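Suppose a colleague, Dr. K., hands you the sequence of a protein chain of 169 amino acids and asks what its three-dimensional shape might be. Before reaching for any lab equipment, you can write down a predicted structure in token form. Begin with the sequence itself:
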Amino acid sequence: MTFKEIQDLLKFVSKSELSEVRIKEAEFELTIRNKNYSKGSASPGVVASHPVSIAPVSVPAPEPVAETPAPAAQSGGATPAEDSDSVAGLLEVKSPIVGTFYRSASPDKPPYVSVGDTIAEGAVVCIVEAMKLFNEIESEVSGKIVKVMIEDASPVEYDQVLFLVDPKG
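The predicted structure, expressed as tokens, is then:
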């Protein structure tokens, strides 16, 4: 079972009314439980005693939400047109996995990168914790960090933008 298939299965279970899913293939075993799971109330559901083939689950994209432009005084004097111009030409460092975003290796250590830092391709920029594993995230781009898009210790989704980088910086 591939990582992508597991991610799709997690999304499917979280959106369904299932409280537990178990999959066992040869030496691979996977159990997924959602927040509604309780051991005492578990009822035997559908049980598959033969090899299970999982097809990727199609999850519809969320509908776009129309945003009301903020008044110029609240946005620091920048108009929406200026904001889009400032983002144009910037590169994104995205999360390769779902998990919890951390800017530093531990609370008492400084962040890996801060706004204004220059990074090279392959530099560690943060950590994403997934299933009790702390994964160092390396930049796929070089440049100057312009903006940190996520708060420390916040959940992140697959392919979510973590940092904006100016390649000219």
